[in-house]
Amino acid sequence: MIDMNPQERQLVEFLAEMQEDEALELAKRMLLEEGAAPLRVLELCRNAMDIVGKRFEQGEYFLPELVLAGEMLETIGAIAKPLITHAPGEEPKKLGKVLIGTVHGDLHDIGKNIVAFMLDINGFEVKDIGIDVPVSSFIDEINTWQPNVVGLSGFLTLAFDSMKETIAAFEQQGMRGKFKVMIGGGQIDETVRAYTGADAFGVNAVEAVNLCKAWMGEAA
Questions:
Q1: CA-CA distance, 94 to 87, in Å (whole number)?
Q2: 3-state secondary structure at position 83
Q3: pTM
Q4: Helix 20-28 / helix 63-80 crossing angle, nearest 10 deg
Q5: Maximum pairwise Cα distance, the chain
Q6: Model pLDDT, residue 69
Q7: 66 contact partners, CB below 8 Å, separation of at least 6
Q8: For residues 43 and 195, which has the higher predicted lDDT (pLDDT)?
Q9: CA–CA gap between residue 202 and residue 157 (Å, rounded)
Q10: What secondary structure letter does DSSP report for 94?
Q11: Domains in the chain and their CATH numbers?
Q12: What residues form DSSP beta bridges with 133?
């Protein structure tokens, strides 16, 4: 958990406790009136989503809470994103193309959405193909869109088998060497990475961005 001042702790608490009106009001005030750093606010959102995810795993929260958490994040993201500044008149060049989706059998998208958002604001062209994505859809999208990186997301432990199956299908199609594969979500570690055959795993959105930058030859 990151160090937080009382106001920041309050925002995380509102989000984690599903207090939608209070969370959105505080986030807007911080971003639009008090000039809080947009990336900092998004980092606080990520911390809150970690808490929500743990409560879901422990059976305290269910799908409606996950959906609401995702909606709150989307709303705050829509306010924060335009506030992230680039040099005047400079449209950042796209560093590479990242295809991302939650593997079949898993309906979680909060972590995936944060990663897609962070990649976008860091200069990547991102195509998010949603949740419960069948292997065939990944393959079709890869053939059509030709990404540099494919991100497989999954929160449940059963997603590890889906990731392994998806990456094995890339091998069978003879496309595995054309892009890098990263996995993320839930309890992913080096053992899971080795099991699935992915190139790397990220424990959070910042790590995912750094991985993609390294693969594209950019300094993280």
A1: 15
A2: helix
A3: 0.70
A4: 10
A5: 54
A6: 86
A7: 52, 56, 108, 110
A8: 195
A9: 16
A10: P
A11: 6-83 (1.10.1240.10), 97-215 (3.40.50.280)
A12: 103
